[in-house]
TrEMBL record:
The keyword Hydrolase belongs to this UniProt entry's keyword annotation: yes
Gene3D superfamilies for the chain: 1.10.287.130, 1.20.5.170, P-loop containing nucleotide triphosphate hydrolases
Keyword hit for Repeat: no
Keywords annotated in UniProt: Hydrolase
Top-level taxon of the source organism: Bacteria
Source species taxonomy: Bacteria, Pseudomonadati, Pseudomonadota, Gammaproteobacteria, Cellvibrionales
EC number, as in UniProt: 3.6.5.-
UniProt protein name: Methylmalonyl Co-A mutase-associated GTPase MeaB
Alphabetized InterPro entries for the sequence: GTPase_ArgK, P-loop_NTPase
Family of the protein in this entry: Belongs to the SIMIBI class G3E GTPase family. ArgK/MeaB subfamily.
GO molecular function annotation: hydrolase activity
Length: 323
């Protein structure tokens, strides 16, 4: 699959879409070709700010992303919106109507909206999204918004691939973390209370104070304390202030080196995760291992051998000379 690299780097959306199709392909020859393409493009990546956005159903995530994206476009930015949905069963993902959710944003030539890739290949959805993010950066997008669509692990997956992780909340003080796991809150660089309008303004202020008190003990690193802000996406209120906060974070994190440190750590951790997955795949594909595994499972179950010795026998098969 021939990809026009120069056209992609010039921001050609057709070349970008073709490159993403290559990256998302499950064919082995396409996987190799995609990795060579990504390696060629690496010098042109890393110039964006990568922002993760999550929130429970009903929090107004699509409305917020569209309002935020449109504001960024008004500031001369190019914006890409990617989705991570591990629960998506079909190719093309389940981004709930995809561009129809963000109709105004999707009309702009400077916005790119991509649904979640399908599951079932090495690295899963998160791997494809990481690689798509790099392609968007090479194509000149300044802001990459990575949103969670499913529930469960997707928040952790997104937090592990972005520079800044934002959790959208409802103006509902006292509702204990609003169904969001405590661990997700601890990953957040900012909590943004959406729908702070009309009769909910006072409640939003209470919620903000509640979370400010809860978060003041959390400090992600030496320079950043998680922020709590409120906005009304539907009324376009305080969107500018949220971008100002994120811009300030990027400036400081770039100056003190923590942004590059974080990205380097994320890349190392992802390589190690892929290494484990590849070894596991090699094991399951090895015919001798497949034959011996049920026998060893039975021996371990019956107490005839130790789990350590059984695992060692399987690994020795994988690394036999000539294998």
């Amino acid at each position: 699959m021939a990809i026009d690299i120069e056209a992609l780097k010039a921001g050609n959306s057709r070349a970008l879409a073709k490159a993403i199709t290559l990256v998302e392909s499950k064919r082995v020859e396409h996987r190799t070709e995609a990795q060579l393409l990504l390696e060629q493009l690496l010098p042109s990546t890393g110039n964006s700010i990568r922002i993760g956005i999550t929130g429970i159903p009903g929090v107004g995530k699509s409305t917020f992303i569209e309002a935020f994206g449109l504001y960024l476009l008004s500031q001369g930015k190019r914006v890409a919106v990617l989705a991570v949905d591990p629960s998506s069963p079909i190719a093309g993902g389940s981004i709930l109507g995809d561009k129809t959710r963000m109709e105004m944003l999707s009309r702009s030539k400077d916005a790119f909206i991509r649904p979640s890739p399908s599951e079932g290949s090495l690295g899963g959805v998160a791997q494809k999204t990481r690689e798509t993010m790099l392609l968007c950066e090479a194509a000149g997008y300044d802001v990459i918004l990575v949103e969670t669509v499913g529930v469960g692990q997707s928040e952790y997956e997104v937090a592990s691939m972005v520079d800044f992780f934002m959790v959208l909340m409802l103006p509902n003080a006292g509702d204990e973390l609003q169904g969001i796991k405590k661990g997700i809150i601890e990953l957040a660089d900012a909590l943004v209370i959406n729908k702070a309008d009309g009769e909910s303004i006072n409640l939003a202020q209470q919620t903000r104070r509640h979370y400010e008190n809860a978060l003041h003990l959390l400090r992600h690193n030496t320079f950043w304390t998680p922020q709590v802000m409120s906005c009304s996406a539907i009324k376009n209120e305080n969107i500018e202030a949220i971008w100002g906060m994120i811009s300030g974070f990027k400036i400081d994190a770039t100056k003190n080196g923590s942004l590059q440190d974080k990205r380097s750590r994320q890349a190392r951790e992802w390589m190690n995760k892929l290494l484990h997955e590849m070894l596991d795949m090699k094991l399951t594909q090895n015919p001798e291992v497949r034959e011996l595994l049920p026998k060893l499972n039975e021996k371990v179950t019956q107490g005839e051998t130790t789990p350590y010795l059984a695992a060692t026998k399987l690994i020795d098969l994988l690394f036999k000379p000539g294998i």
